[in-house]
Fold this protein.
Amino acid sequence: MESDEALTQIFQQLLADGTLSVDQMETEGPRIAADFINKAAAVQLRDLKRRMPSSLREIRRDIRGFEKRNLQRWRRAFNLLETLYLVAAETGSDFNEAERPKIAAEKDFRCEALIHIHARALLVASECLCLMKCGYPDGALSRWRTLHELTVIAAFLSQNSGEVALRYLVSFEFRAVEAGEQMKKYAPRSKVEPPTDTEINALRSRCASHKTVFGPNIGNGDYGWASDVIGKSRPNLLDLEEAVGLDHWRPRFKWSSQHNHGGHRPIGSLLAVTEVKSPVFAIGPSNSGMVDPLHMTALSLTKATSALLISRPGNADRAIAAGLLLKLSDDVGKAAAKVEHA
């Protein structure tokens, strides 16, 4: 408002002293206004930078206080999920170390793929936990979406042959070709350096070889690698969910997907505001709504880890670890629900 008044005064003064005529307002007015706005923005930027250190110190102090209170409220559930994560990480590391020589010697593509997926599942679960500790349950739910997808793929690969896993591994190159061509298309506007024609052509050549070996459907979308097993030329995630008996997670997957897209969400529909007494927009952290992301993260990481462990059966320690993870995941859900009910 102050800037609007100042700009109006400038135009009034220019008209009053004859520097600017009424006829010139149409042609010169936009230039004068733009010059004023640029100068005013520069002044405000200098003032903002001057005040920024003290303002940020105060904000960060408030954030640390919130995170401490959030941790106090959900401590038991957070501790259990962190414990589950550590067990899964240690078990996965031991599996990789023990089986790596055999995997390489036998060209066990299924185990190779499952190890990669498990590592990604650990990373995403860690991100979910971090978001929840910082007060972002809806962000954690959104990241769980990826964790669920990894879990479904892990279960699918664990139930199928090494050739299916190899198809999954090489399918990356089809996505790389698509990404490279898109980067090249938008390079002048996006200011991103695209792959060279030589690099893209090399990828195209390898993809053509993959189609010769595995059939043309392997390049169809994100799940074309599973086409032979599913019996569809262009399968989707739901097809994989149904194949491994995880399609009952579909409603939760759709729920979590809402946070990845720009569709309208009515006020009060976010986890972060589940305990508020009146409608409010969530624009920052909240210590509400952790129950579902906590339990869902625990269950999915447990399933992803179990898919890895059963890929080479006959090890009692791994069977015990899988059972331990399942019990821990149940405890996470119970602990989280107890906090919210209290």
The chain has a mean pLDDT of 91. The two ends are 47 Å apart (CA to CA). Residues 50-260+285-341 form one domain.
